[in-house]
């Protein structure tokens, strides 16, 4: 039987994902000692981990070269979803927010507004839901710069602790949506390998619940 292939988002979500896999009893030694390798066996070789950039996790799962993926809800909201979202993993918690320079009134006045974001689709949908005609400019990172440099009236970005906003004289105007890491599945894999996938997801879900209970004690 081919191993079940899971694409993991490299970077911020990586550590919590590997911890969860280990907690459910899968040996992740090779992932921990990966060096520059990108495809690694976990457990007894029944699962294969693929390390990828967030948006690419979705591409690999949608195209069926990976059966499962671990990716932030932010990436799902920005890139659409031709796959099943099967579990909220509970880590990687942050939120999408509209933020502006401290003391400014984004919704006031009649002048058309400009917003910068690394997530233009999320930003567009937010303003469409408000029936507001807002110009969106795509920025690749450190989006907080855009209002400081006078390029935009506000930003739509991820806020976790709020430190980046605070240290740059910005503040949250409105929270748009909560974000956490999700387990996603390719639609065909979920039919063909239903038992394996559901068994793995159930083990993860039980562990997440256990972790939550231990945290609240
Ligand atoms: N403070 C945060 N900033 C950004 N993402 C966060 C934060 N906290 C949790 N996350 C989650 O972690 C995921 C991965 O973020 P990470 O910064 O590692 O990759 P990225 O957004 O692709 O950035 P880069 O292009 O710098 O690699 C995000 O998609 C999001 O779901
Ligand atoms: O609320 P905080 O805890 O300060 O975290 C939020 C910051 O972290 C992310 O940036 P990241 O470090 O991923 O860099 P980037 O801006 O280049 O994407 C995000 O885009 C914010 O800038």
Chart the SSEs and their pairings:
Blueprint: E1 4-9, H1 14-23, H2 29-32, E2 39-42, E3 47-52, H3 54-62, E4 68-72, H4 73-79, E5 84-88, E6 94-101, E7 113-117, H5 120-129, E8 134-138, H6 145-149, E9 154-159, H7 163-167, E10 170-179, E11 181-185, H8 187-192, H9 194-216
Parallel strand pairs: 1-3, 1-4, 7-8, 7-9
Antiparallel strand pairs: 2-3, 4-11, 5-11, 6-9, 6-10
Bound molecules: adenosine-5'-triphosphate and 1-O-pyrophosphono-5-O-phosphono-alpha-D-ribofuranose.
In short:
This protein has 217 residues and is α/β, with parallel strands linked by helices.
The proportion of residues forming helix, as a percent range, comes to: 25-40%
**CATH-defined topology of the largest domain:** D-Maltodextrin-Binding Protein, domain 2
Classification by helices and strands: alpha/beta
Number of structural domains: 2
Major sheet strand order:
2-3-1-4-11-5
Q: What summary fits the major beta sheet?
A: 6 strands, mixed
Order of helices and strands: EHHEEHEHEEEHEHEHEEHH
| CATH homologous superfamily label of the largest domain | Periplasmic binding protein-like II
| Count of strand segments | 11
> CATH class of the largest domain, anyone?
Alpha Beta
Secondary structure tally, helices: 9
Share of β-strand residues? 25-35%
**Overall morphology:** elongated
Low-pLDDT runs of 5+ residues are none
Subcellular location: Cytoplasm
Pathway: Amino-acid biosynthesis; L-histidine biosynthesis; L-histidine from 5-phospho-alpha-D-ribose 1-diphosphate: step 1/9
Keywords: Amino-acid biosynthesis, ATP-binding, Coiled coil, Cytoplasm, Glycosyltransferase, Histidine biosynthesis, Nucleotide-binding, Transferase
Catalytic activity: 1-(5-phospho-beta-D-ribosyl)-ATP + diphosphate = 5-phospho-alpha-D-ribose 1-diphosphate + ATP
């Amino acid at each position: 039987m081919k191993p079940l292939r899971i694409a993991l988002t490299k970077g911020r979500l990586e550590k919590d994902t590997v911890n969860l896999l280990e907690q459910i009893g899968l040996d992740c030694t090779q992932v921990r000692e990966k060096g520059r390798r990108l495809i690694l066996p976990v457990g007894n070789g029944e699962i294969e981990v693929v390390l990828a950039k967030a948006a690419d996790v979705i591409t690999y799962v949608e195209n069926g070269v990976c059966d499962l993926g671990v990716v932030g809800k932010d990436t799902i909201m920005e890139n659409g979803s031709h796959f099943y979202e099967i579990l909220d993993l509970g880590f990687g918690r942050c939120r999408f927010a509209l933020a502006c320079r401290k003391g400014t009134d984004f919704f006031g006045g009649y002048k058309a507004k400009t917003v910068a974001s690394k997530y233009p689709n999320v930003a567009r949908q937010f303003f469409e839901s408000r029936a507001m005609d807002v110009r969106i400019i795509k920025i690749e990172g450190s989006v907080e710069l855009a209002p400081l440099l006078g390029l935009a009236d506000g930003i739509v970005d991820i806020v976790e602790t709020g430190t980046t906003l605070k240290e740059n004289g910005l503040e949250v105007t409105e929270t748009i949506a909560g974000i956490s890491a999700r387990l996603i599945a390719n639609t065909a894999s979920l039919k063909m390998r239903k038992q394996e996938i559901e068994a793995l997801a159930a083990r993860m879900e039980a562990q997440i619940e256990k972790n939550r209970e231990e945290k609240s004690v």
